[in-house]
Description:
The protein has two helices and no strands. The chain has a domain at 24-58. The chain has helices at 24-37, 41-52. By secondary structure, the protein is mainly alpha-helical.
Amino acid sequence: xxxxxxxxxxxxxxxxxxxARPHRxxxxxxxxxxxxxxxxxxxxxxxxLARALQLEQYAPDLPQPDGQEVLPLGRTA
Length: 77
């Protein structure tokens, strides 16, 4: 029997959960900006916090644009 290779997401390092309850306007903007950047809201918040605290060495890496369009999966059947 052939060995099955499992490939998941790479480990993102030492992390903890932090909760926030921002105003709806802020949450809507967060969703919009994180989608435009192509990252999860959690990673986008971590990036913003790292920049605000001048600890950018701990910020998650953003995906590099490769010229490919993002498929509108939310509008598919």
